[in-house]
Each structure stands twice: as C-alpha cells, then as structure tokens.
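Good morning C.,

I know you're traveling, so I'll keep this short. The sequence:
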Amino acid sequence: MDHTAEFRRWKAQCLSKADLSRKGSVDEDVVEFVQLLNEREQYFTTSSCAGRIILLDGGINGFEVQKQNRCWLLVTHKPCVKDDVMAALKKATGDAILKFEPLVLHVQCRQLLDAQILHSVAIDSGFRNSGITVGKRGKTMLAVRSTHGLEVPLSNKGKLMVTEEYIDFLLKIANQKMEENKKRIERFYNCLQRALEKETITNLHPKEKIKDKNNSSYTRKKKRNPEEAHGKCLTEENDKECENDDDPGISVSIFPEDY
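The tokens, ready to paste straight into the viewer:
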C-alpha cells in the first residue's frame, strides 16, 4: 500500500475514535494546538495533556511508579490551592504523592521530514526532551515533552509526613511550573504556525527549498549577533530561561493513548 494512502487511513481511524481519556475531551489550553495539527494533512495527534497537578494515593507497600495502580485523589489543569490538597489528603490510605506534569503531546507524522520540522519547533520553544521514533511499519511518531516536572511524597500509610506550610510551599512551585508550561505552549503554538506557513509557501515555490537548505535546523547553526536573532521563535532570554528550568535529571512520564 502507498505510504501516503496508509497514513491517511491511520489518521481517519484515529480521529474517528471516541475520546477514552478520564476527562473525555482535549484540554482547553491545547484545543487550538490539536486542531492546528489535525487540520494539516501531514500530522495527526494520538494523545495529549496540557499539563496538570495531581495527587495520587498508592498502596502501603512502597511508592509505585505506575499511575494505573493508584487512586486519583485530585487532578487539575489549573493552579491549585492548599485547601483542595488538604481535603484530598484526608482520603489517602496509602502513600500519597503530589505531582506536576508538563505538556505531553504525541503526534504521528506522514514522513520523517515532517517530524523534524515539528521537533525543531518544539525544541526551540522549550520542550527539550522531545523525540522522534520510527516504527517497523513506517509509523513516524513525535513525542513533545519537557523536563520541568515535580514529584514529591506527602504521606506514608495514610499518615501525613510533611507540614501544611511545606505543602503550601510545594504548591507555589507547582503553580509556577504550571504558568511556565502555559507560556511554552503559547510559544510553541505561535512558532508552529509560522513554521507551517513557511513550509506551505516553500512547497508552492520549490526553488525556495534550495535557498533554505543551509538554514535547516538539522545543520550546524552559525553564531549570530542579537540583531540577527530578532524575530526568531526563541530569544536569548527564553533560551536561558529554558536551560535553567529544564533539569535533565528529572524523569518525565509519557501518557498512554487511553489517558
């Protein structure tokens, strides 16, 4: 089967499926983003989460990594307040963990070049833990993600192990990360719009590809002065902000498609 035709079949099947996530719909902060990608013939999204603060309660036999084996005490895609967390903690009977998880977006791409364009924009927008995988059947997937997560244990066997003051401190950090996550999503969306518009123009005028070949994000980037950097998706200030905030040592979970 022609790869393009098979990709269209995969896309039609995926977009026709019912949303089986807990929420049952796309998160508000990424609705336009998902629509933008799904409207393009070379992309479609398979799963997404705009970012969230969650409180999980697990078994009493140690902290489990899998969220599937835990009870969801609290989940919000908005800033969280201490009173909500304290009320949820009263229901904990095992080992409760407070987590902040940033944007995760999975996109199937028609071909590797399409994935590289999206990957380059994601990296420049602050999602520096993003990656591309290519399957045996030619499925090219891009996972958009960053590393500014947070995961802190709060209770053991139902007993609170930290003070309310510390929980308030953690929530300030989590809410700050949520706000930074939102800024990155907006930056990513705006940069992606420009990149896709440029790609459309280039496809209409193939000669432009020759001019742009040496400017590819997958070639060595030349050092430029601040004036040359004007108008780029990622400013020096944003670049430093991302470098300071992204800690490669923090693990990031990728949500399954049934999230």
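Safe travels,
E.
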